[in-house]
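Researcher: We're teaching a course module on how sequence relates to structure. For the next exercise, students receive a sequence and then see the predicted structure as tokens, so they can try to spot secondary structure elements on their own. Here is the exercise chain.
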Amino acid sequence: APVVDDPERLPPARGETLQEGKERALPALLRVVDRHPGEAIAIVAHGGINKILLLSLLDAPLAGYWRVAQSNGAVNLIEFPRPGERLALGPHVLVVNDTSFLKTPSVDPAVVGQE
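Model: And here is the predicted structure for the students to work with:
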């Protein structure tokens, strides 16, 4: 298979492999979550790191990297267990790649409410 079809083998251009990205980003995310138990937090990252984090939280293989969409400015919503609470199978990925807030509502009366 061409390397582009196997993202785990895609050679980084002065960057890191997907596995190296996971080893750096996932512990950082979990540290922030641990420091803010039960709070709403925002993590801002590049689409590539977002994809790695989503795949990791879903226990999905990094080979699925190209199957996850991350548009510019997209929002992903993840629910982590609160202290003493146990969510089935860990964090819940609730929303992926939401960009609906970026769309300007129409002022055309024929379209309002149909967007």
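Model: If you want an answer key for the exercise: The chain has a mean pLDDT of 86. Strands lie at 75-79, 92-98.
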